[in-house]
Design goal:
single chain; 2 domains; mainly alpha
Length: 314
């Protein structure tokens, strides 16, 4: 059974979802900066900060400002997700888009829970020498953030002209290339999350090793860094290969050139992060651009399926 599908996008839903997408990037930036300066435990309680929504010192102390502003921005994103779900219930006839909107609420609620458990199960709260539980939830929190933004980007795409005007059949080889690139990028994101949250980041490379082989760290620290860097190379090549496939199929310039630009910028930021190990802003921007790349890639892959008509089915 096929669902009714509009020929033109709903501007109100598009505007609401686009605003939420931009806001989610702000939330990610705040969270990334908090991690970069090791301020995740500026407050030992959750969801309030020192028992308040306006804790003393959060406007004057950088660690408290980073953590509390992240919490406030995340709360707004939660409200936006609820608004998106309600708006789609009323205004959106396509079942798969409504389900995506409901899925967004689920991911945002899960994201809040993971963030809260990261704080409440930290060794500063429960005692002990190790901090495996808190780090595990922190990694989940970081990865789920990427998935949340990617899903929100997909919802925005479904309300765009590109989605409504798509109709050209895409070969299965192109779709497989896009899926492979997406999985590789996600694996790099996972390794990067383990590095950041576990403080496994061996930023400095020696003159003999260059940028590719980490020169410090042993055991799992060395391997996680190596997998992140080597995975980034493979993922970058896969994304470029997918972009070339899109270009050969005469996709609009913006759809494949944006992938080329983002993956190039991300690699340069990764190199800069190694060269400037004590600069939290570079690492934060590296995180944000990585999310932009992953979301754009997911949207591009979804569009190749849309052009085959699969998203028109109930």
């Amino acid at each position: 059974m096929r669902e009714p599908d509009r020929t033109t996008p709903n501007r109100r839903l598009f505007g609401l979802c686009l605003f939420a997408l931009l806001w989610s990037i702000l939330v990610l930036q705040a969270g990334g900066f908090t991690t970069s300066i090791h301020a995740g435990m500026a407050f030992l309680d959750w969801p309030l900060s020192n028992g308040s929504v306006n804790p003393p010192g959060w406007l004057t102390e950088i660690d408290k400002f980073a953590e509390h502003s992240h919490r406030l921005a995340a709360t707004v994103l939660g409200l936006l997700a609820i608004a998106i779900a309600l708006a789609h219930t009323v205004l959106e006839p396509r079942r798969y888009v409504r389900r995506a909107a409901y899925g967004l609420v689920t991911l945002v609620v899960l994201q809040g829970g993971l963030g809260g458990l990261r704080v409440l199960l930290d060794k500063l709260n429960i005692g002990g020498d190790g901090n495996f539980k808190a780090v595990a939830f922190a990694v989940g929190h970081a990865v789920n953030a990427q998935l949340t933004i990617a899903l929100l980007a997909f919802i925005v795409l479904t309300h765009s002209l590109a989605w409504h005007q798509a109709g050209k059949c895409t070969p299965s080889s192109v779709r497989r290339g896009g899926i492979a690139a997406t999985l590789l990028v996600f694996s790099v994101i996972l390794a990067g999350a383990i590095m950041r949250q576990g403080h496994f980041t061996a930023w400095v490379s020696g003159p003999q090793e260059g940028l590719f082989i980490p020169s410090i760290g042993t055991g799992i620290v060395w391997w996680i860094n190596f997998l992140h860097r080597s995975g980034a190379v493979l993922a970058g090549l896969a994304v470029l290969g997918f972009a070339v496939q899109l270009a050969r199929r005469r996709f609009p310039l913006l759809r494949w050139a944006s992938l080329v630009a983002l993956v190039t910028f991300q690699v340069l930021l990764g190199i800069l992060s190694i060269q400037l190990p004590h600069n939290p802003h570079v690492r934060t921007v590296h995180l944000v651009v990585g999310a932009a790349l992953f979301s754009t890639l997911c949207a591009a892959v979804a569009l190749t399926f849309r052009q085959e008509g699969r998203f028109a089915e109930a």
